[in-house]
From TrEMBL:
Regions that span the bilayer: none
Top-rank lineage group of the source organism: Bacteria
Record protein name field: Pyruvate dehydrogenase (Acetyl-transferring) E1 component subunit alpha
GO molecular function: magnesium ion binding; oxidoreductase activity, acting on the aldehyde or oxo group of donors, disulfide as acceptor
Entry annotated with the keyword Oxidoreductase: yes
């Protein structure tokens, strides 16, 4: 019989209350051992969140104008989206979901390219290797396996690259998430799992999703250090993700972070959330707005003047106007693009399909 003693799990457990640095009223919260980001980072978080929200509002408006097929809003989740992305180093990779357009924009990808997928023009509008951002995944949790495979490969190749994968609360019920967590833990893959618990998976509330004490607790069974953080506190999200990225880069393996936040809008513009949730609940979360919280904090500390706040708003407005204008043009698509970039050498069956399509198109236009 093995005489190996098993270490306790205490060091892996998340805190009972979410870690935080700034309270909803802008005052400081003490989270032992969690450093407050620098003033420059706090201002970058503020800029990113204001820009992110304005982008999000514009994208929703574009669905109403028929310029976008669908858009899943991340309004209210700006602290988690931007806090996490700004904690990445340039060489790290982001593995986002359909909801994380804001995060992709924050990583520096042109918003028009980000919205290409949701416009239905192309599979992905950006080249992943140019921006270190994988295509946004609609199949839930598949991106967790992509991130772990990517992180593992980077480690085998001796590269200093960390993969950050974003998941929703609902995605934690998928088998893929558990396979990814297990593999990453056993192989100490340089991966940070960020679960944005926004309370709902379409109409399914968290209480029907899991009986676990928190989603962060799910990491413990795999031997992964797990963190519960206030997902509406950009400073705290940035601090915990930065710490997890550093640990992964140092060869310490993965971290699971649950960011507690809320989906303020419906699942997408095609969903009516009033059918399954109470408006009082939405109001409670609106009072915990991540942008107002950081603004209050920065203003009280004299870091954000009225003039600077107006500049940040004006820049976000100008970016939204540019996005609106550029999305208001019709795109010319080449149907043959469907067959390109799939295989280095096209298999015969696909070649037949391409020829069949081209023949049909010729006939339609003759
Ligand atoms: C494998 C798979 N099953 C089901 C769906 C349908 N679906 C799309 S979004 C969604 C809810 C996901 O909720 P959550 O993971 O909490 O993310 P959120 O939308 O709240 O960001 C479901 C079930 C899907 N896209 N992929
Ligand atoms: Mg959700």
């Amino acid at each position: 019989m093995s005489t190996t003693t098993r270490a306790g799990a205490q060091h892996l457990l998340p805190t009972a209350d979410p870690l935080g640095l700034i309270a909803p009223d802008g005052t400081l919260v003490d989270s032992p051992g969690l450093p407050m980001p620098s003033d420059d980072v706090l201002l970058a978080l503020y800029r990113g969140m204001v820009a992110g929200r304005r982008f999000d509002t514009q994208a929703t408006a574009l669905t109403k104008q028929g310029r976008l097929a669908v858009y899943p809003s991340a309004r209210g989740q700006e602290a988690a989206e931007i806090g996490a992305v700004l904690a990445l180093r340039p060489q790290d990779w982001l593995f986002p979901t359909y909801r994380d357009s804001m995060a992709v924009v924050t990583r520096g990808v042109d918003p028009v390219r980000v919205l290409t997928l949701l416009r239905g023009d192309w599979h992905s509008g950006y080249a992943p290797a140019e921006c270190n951002v994988a295509p946004q995944c609609t199949p839930l949790a598949t991106n967790s396996l992509h991130a772990v495979g990517f992180g593992h490969a980077a480690r085998v190749k001796g590269e200093d690259t960390v993969a950050l994968v974003m998941l929703g609360d609902g995605a934690t019920s998928e088998g893929d998430t558990h396979e990814a967590l297990n593999f990453a833990a056993v192989w100490r893959s340089p991966v940070v799992f960020l679960v944005q618990n926004n309370g709902y998976a379409i109409s399914v509330p968290l209480a029907k999703q899991t009986a676990a004490p928190s989603l962060a607790h799910k990491g413990v069974g795999y031997g992964i250090p797990s963190v519960l953080v206030d997902g509406n506190d950009a400073a705290a999200v940035h601090a915990v993700v930065e710490r997890a990225v550093a640990a992964a880069a140092a060869g310490e393996g993965p971290t699971l972070i649950e960011a507690l936040t809320y989906r303020v809008e419906a699942h997408t513009n095609a969903d009516d959330a009033t059918r399954y949730r109470d408006q009082d609940e939405v109001q409670t979360w609106l009072a915990r707005d991540p942008i107002a919280r950081l603004r209050t904090h920065l203003t009280a500390r004299g870091l954000l003047t009225d003039e600077l706040a107006a500049q940040v708003d004006a820049q976000a407005e100008a970016d939204a106007a540019s996005l609106r204008e550029r999305m208001n043009t019709d795109t010319e698509l080449d149907p043959r693009d469907l067959f390109r970039n799939v295989y280095a050498e096209q298999p015969p069956a696909l070649r037949d399909q391409e020829e069949q399509l081209l023949a049909e198109l010729r006939e339609a236009h003759s």
